[in-house]
Amino acid sequence: MIGVAINGYGTIGRRVAYGVSVQDDMYVTGIVKNSPDYVTKQASRYYNIYVPDSDKKKEFEESDVKVKGTLKDLLAESDIVIDGTPEGNGEKNLKLYKEYGIKAILEGGERSEAVESSFNAYSNYSESMGKNYVRVVSCNTTALARTLTPLHEAFRIESASSTILRRATDPNDNKKGPINAIEPSMSYPSHHAGDLKTVMKDINIETTAVKVPTTLMHVHVINLELASQPGIQEVINALSQKRRIIVLNGGEKINSTAQVMDYARELSRNRSDLYEIAIWRDSINIYKNRLHYIQAVHQESDVIPENIDAIRAMFGMEQNLSVNKTDASLDIKGVEY
After folding, report:
1. CB 182 within 8 A of CB 210
2. pTM here?
3. CA 310, CA 130: separation in Å to the nearest integer?
4. Which residues carry out catalysis?
5. 3-state class of 211 per DSSP?
6. On the CB side of 148, how many CA atoms lie within 13 Å of its CA?
7. What pLDDT is attached to residue 335?
8. pLDDT at residue 38 in the model
């Protein structure tokens, strides 16, 4: 059993904790929280609570939250740590992790140069086998790698472009925007292209990003130039080989991110999460060797299976065995309508 510490229990951290807790070969040793808020009080029903340092203990105890120890105590009791702290902190925390000789996974907001490898389960699982410090790429990069990999394997992608419509912030965040605006990224290509190349080194891609006033999901408009000219059903068949992709039919009244997330609620999963990348079947179009499709990305949860698989890769488990175990535990079956 692999003992997994969760440093940072926010959008990603709390979902990784749940994902770890339903595996049969790992368990949550504890979570680190910075304040005794409502999230902490709920989490204390399931996990041991730790604080960043001893100065925080009094604040938690005054709020009737039992603290088992500090981050350093937790690291000493664990085999690996998932760092879900705010962007930029993970790399700073690496020094402490290395001092304690503990393996660590950082999230997509950190620099790829800080770790030994970046990770996506479909595109480069083997590169993280046995490594000590790994980064799971961002939600957008995970989504791009997940759908481009089977298409690249089946038809060879000569070039790719994607316009990424980014949610402004997560549903529980009332501090960020835009509220009544659309905010384009002035960088071209956007950082997503370079990030994708950390896990798909031979991909030729350009990306553009636009931030829009929604909290539900990201949307990617993808255009590919392929080496061959497949039919639409061949494309669907290639995508359907991977359980972490679903092809949804807009004719069934799933024609916006609102309906996609309502579909996710009907799956009755923890937190109504949609781990899969949803592609609208109606958007799949082919002209000669050019393929167009649109996909929706639940930014809160699509990286959760990747974190679980990254843990196993770092401890030497073979790709297919890990992916199969993760999918079964999270009820990821692959769906096409």
Report:
1. yes
2. 0.95
3. 10
4. 139
5. strand
6. 32
7. 67
8. 95
The SS3 assignment for 253 reads coil
- pLDDT means over runs of 10, the chain (337 residues): 97 97 98 95 96 92 93 98 95 96 97 97 98 98 98 98 93 83 94 96 96 95 97 96 94 92 95 97 96 98 98 97 97 79
Three-state SS for 206? strand
| pLDDT score for 227 | 97
CA distance 133 to 97: 9
Q: 297 is written with which tokens? A: 């990305």
Question: Tokens 């990069």 belong to which residue?
Answer: 141
* The predicted structure's pLDDT at residue 46: 96
Output the six-digit token pair for 176. 């960020």
Give the amino acid at 150.
Answer: P
Determine contact, residues 279/147, Cβ cutoff 8 Å.
Answer: yes
Using the Cα atoms of residue 299, residue 139, residue 153 and residue 334 in order, give the sign of their dihedral.
negative
- Looking at residue 274, the DSSP 8-state letter turns out to be -
Q: Which DSSP string do the residues of 95-146 spell out, in sequence order?
A: HHHHHTT-EEEE-TTS-GGGSSEEE-TTT-GGGGTT-SEEEEPPHHHHHHHH
Q: Which of 28, 25, 33 is nearest to 5 (CA)?
A: 28
